[in-house]
Every structure is written in structure tokens, then in C-alpha cells.
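Continuing the series of single-chain predictions for the mutant panel. This is the parent chain; the variants come on the following pages.
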Amino acid sequence: MAVDLLLGLQWGDEGKGKIVDVLTENYDIIARFQGGPNAGHTLEFDGIKHVLHTIPSGIFHKNAVNVVGNGVVIDPVIFKKELDALKKFNLDVNSKLFISRKAHLILPTHRLLDAASEASKGKAKIGSTLKGIGPTYMDKTGRNGMRIGDLELNDWKDKYRSLANKHEAMISFYDVDIQYDLAELESDFFKAVEELKKLTFIDSEEYLYQAQKAGKKILAEGAQGSLLDIDFGTYPFVTSSNTTAAGACTGLGVAPNQIGKVKGIFKAYTTRVGSGPFPTELFDEDGETMGRVGNEFGATTGRPRRCGWLDLVALKYAVRVNGVTELMMMKGDVLSGFEKLKVCTAYNYKGEQIEHFPYNIEAENVTPVYSEMDGWKEDLTKMTSADQLPKALNAYIDFLEKELEVPIKIVSVGPDRTQTILR
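Parent structure:
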């Protein structure tokens, strides 16, 4: 049985959490394959809004098993808070939530290193969420990291102490003023680790292999978005993991020839949190309206998202890099009321018009080339079927499908799981 993927195709915040929640009823296992608690997956149903950071978005479904894969980095303190928030829903997390022994741990000193590094950059900050993600992946690739499986060893605290001491020496190297009480941070960390150890740790690659052999349906859930990929994103303003389809193979131990459908999610417009180039960013009333109507604030950080028109150059790039087989368009309802819509179909790049995504998309090199389309005024939020969608929205969708050469299977018209139209 092939493993299907679900990925974000922009700079994150596309609405992956909602779609995983909607799709989970079709799958036996939801497996998160990369990233850390810098992700914020928002789900809304039964009048309640839920924000998950590390736990897969299938956790609210009774029959789904949720796996945190080896490619994920885990902060026990944040993980414990997520578990505490789930207690009131009487979920059987012990039988529904498994963690890969090969997943790396975020230590308190990783977060301090993150803060020190960002502070040292001054105006050149990359917009880190300061969750310790980058330093943890640095330790992983530097072969210094602590993993979930280490917590099963009797001497794991000795390994922790050695790594934390090294981090403190590195923090002093940055020579920035960061106030912290490590003893207090460690107290919270050790308490959270004890809670984490109550969960089931697994050799996830073996678990998923046996599940495939048994005919189980598996959906791999990505975090962040393709344009934040450490290799293919807008470097250095990226995350520290592979957010693209290839990351599912290394982040779960799934062979490339076992990948089935690749479901790509994008917003009907574009947003970005933090620093970095953004060719279609708007600084006018249209951008303000998108942000206000779309409630564009980071689910993890609360930072306002920068908003702009849909960038098809970047979206085509993400579709190709990931091998996307079907698309989901989110927040179509946010564009209701715009008399005219713009879509970026090419870039003016150093005096030449191009339609591919170049190495550098900084403003001094790139100017977007737009196509203009009619907007729609209808309120989409109460619509329940594709035949109710406005003519202008269907024209917008048809245009995107023709340009992207991939079908748009889902149109989201609101944050609730019921506000999802299948095409």
C-alpha cells in the first residue's frame, strides 16, 4: 500500500492541519515527517479551535494512529503542553500516538542558542521562531544530538549534561545580552521528559513498513511549506529541514517507490511570516484586507503574516519539485469582495521576463508580471457543493489548473472542517 503525502506549497500556513483533519477518515495512520514546534497546525470543528505544533493533525479521529517520525525535532515542554490541552477531550493518546526513537530532542539550551544567534545578527535576522529548531538540526547533522531513544538509557542525563555544557560555552561566544535561568528551564524540561516517557516509542521505519505490508492506508503530513525547504526554499530565510516530498522519505524511512499521491496545499493568495523576499507582497489596502479577513496571524508565534497576490511562478516551482498530483486551494472565501484579482504569471528578472523560479528573488532583481481577472462578491462560507461556486471563482480555478497542469480537488471556504468543497 503506497504512502500518500500532504505538503504545503508556499511559505507555510497554507492550512495543512485542517485538510489532514478532513482527510484522516480515509487513512489508518497519519505520520508527521519533519519540522518541530515552529509549526502551527490549526483545526476548527464543533465550535472549537485547536492548534497543534508537533502532534499530527489526525489525533482527534478515534480510529487513526498518529506517528511522529524520525525527521521531527521534539521539545518535551511544548509536547507536554499539547498533551495537557488534549486531556479534556478524553483521547486515548497512549494507543493513538507513537514517537520514533530516532527523532531528535530540543533541549532548553537549543532555544537559548537560537535566541543568541538571532540577536547577534542584528538587522540581518532571518525571523526565527526561537524554538531551538535550527540548533537542534545543527546538532543532528553534527552528530552531537540527543534522540528520543536515548531517554530509554540509564545514563541519558549524563549525555544531556555534556551537550548542555557545550551549548552554554557556545552561547557565551555570541557575546549578546540574554537573560535566562537555566535551572528553571531544566526543571520544566526534566518534568516534561517524564511525561514523554509514558508514551510509546517505536522504530518508526519498521512500524510503517509492516503497516504497509498489512495494507494500512498512510498519510504523511508535512510542516511549514515548500518555499521554506532548506535546499529549495528562499535560503537563508528558510526552516532547517526538508519540507518537500523528498523529506517524507528521509523523515519516515519510506522508500521513494512507495510514495503514492502527492497532495499539495496552497492559498488562493500568498502569505509569509518573518523575513525574506516576497515578490507579490502588497503594502496597500488590498494587502490589509487579505490579512484582516483571512485572520493572518502565525498560529505558533502570533506574528502578523505578510500578504500578497498569488505567485504562480513560485507555485509552479513547488508543484514540480514535489511531483504534486492533486491540489487543494485554501481560503477562497477571503478573496470575496475584490473587484479585480491579480495573479503573478512571470517575473521581470534582471531586465528579462522569465517564468521559472530563479536563484535570487530579492526585490532588486525581481518584479512580478501580473494577469488580471474578475473577482466575485458572493459569500462562500455557507456553500457546500462545487455547483454553488460563483462563475468568477470557477474561472479563477480553471485558469490555475491550466497553468499548473494539476487538478484542484478541494476548495476551502472557511476554517471549519465542514467548510470544505470537493470537486
